[in-house]
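Let us practice reading a record.
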Amino acid sequence: MKLVEQRVIDFVAATASKEPTPGGGAIAALTAATGAALAEMVANLTFGKKGYEAVQTEMEELQAKAEAIRERMLELSQADADVFNIFMNALGLPKNTDEEKAARTAAIQQAYKDAAMVPFEIGELANQIFDLAELASRKGNQNLITDGIIAAINARAAVKSAFLNVRINLSGIKDESFVAELTSKMYAIEKYLDVKESSIIGLYE
């Protein structure tokens, strides 16, 4: 059964078990999905509300963007588990001859890259939730302002968590240009995480 098809109680139990998946990457994706869902909820509960007529178009755009992120994050939670299995299969390849060793090394290196790219996409996409959370908190139904703020808090947690998983996989990659490119992109995103979260939290203070 796919992770996203499990009941919440079963997903959490599977995370707590001795099995390596679902792990931190899947949890990061799920955290991001719930953040997007909260922003989406604010939009849905702003539609048709008196006093919010001027922001209906913005709320419609917010809802559509948040829905797309939410659905993609659920796909990525499964993808994270899948790339782990691919990596383990690569480790199990035979290494009796020089040709087998070379093939195994190539497979492992590709698996490392794939295992880095999935959480990178999670973090990169989670970063987009900040704009949605700010819009939800600033212009959405003000009875739900804390839900919009929690969307931002979840976004930050998802980015940080996902990028930790990226880095542990980068440590095994020999392609220096690949490592440098992803490291630079993560730094550019992480540089502003605290500022983004604090500015949105500040809307309620």
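A brief commentary: Helices lie at 8-16, 24-44, 56-91, 98-127, 129-139, 145-170, 176-190, 193-201.
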